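Fold this sequence, please.
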Amino acid sequence: MSTGKQNPLAAAEAADRKRKIAIQVGVAAVLVALVAAIGIGIAVKKSGSDSENTATSAAQLPATGGSVTESGAVRIGNPDAKVKVRVVADLQCPACKQFEAANGEALAEAAANGTAVIEYQIISFLDRASSTQYSSRAANASFCVAKSDPSKYQGWLQTMFAKQPAEGTAGLSNEQLVQIATEAGYTDPAVATCINDKPYNDYITQVTQQTLSSGVKSTPSVFINGELNQSDAIFTENGLASVIADAAK
């Protein structure tokens, strides 16, 4: 994330709060018509107080340590690494599960030893494959855990794909998503609240549309230093290890 620019997750949260406040204000406006002038004064005062509290909480949001890029990708590893791997995936995508099973460990090792920085672009175009918009809910959970502690993110991702629900089902419940996060070490109650409240829904829609508009046609799409890798390596066990090593020379 570029220094001096607004944290993209903070911006998404602020937009979600503004949307909720707008809804609340709209409801309040109807009620105001039914109450006396004193009631109007109280409602206006409360609205102003809520706005001030929202601005304060947004300003106090903790930094994500550079874990989310301006394009909405979760970044793991040294951003100055010679090799940049960008993985575009949907957590409901079966082929993405195959990719993670084959290369998840290789990516974790490359990020840990400084060979590569890995950017996970999690999108939600497969909501139609579940009856509960699982892709969007899982993508929201991705941002929740990334904001909390990016160091545990790859372990969480591996578990999410290992427990991927079958297409056409209801998908994992929010309670199950919270449990997976907890098992991955995300015990902060704020993570569970984030998963249940889904503050990044609108942001996820925006990121998904922008990603697909950029030319991404399928998931997983894997880019090595900006170039799409279409080799068998992405589905070969540890296949990306040699690709990353070659790119680092």
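The first strand starts at residue 74 and ends at 76. The beta strands are 74-76, 83-90, 116-123, 221-224, 227-228.
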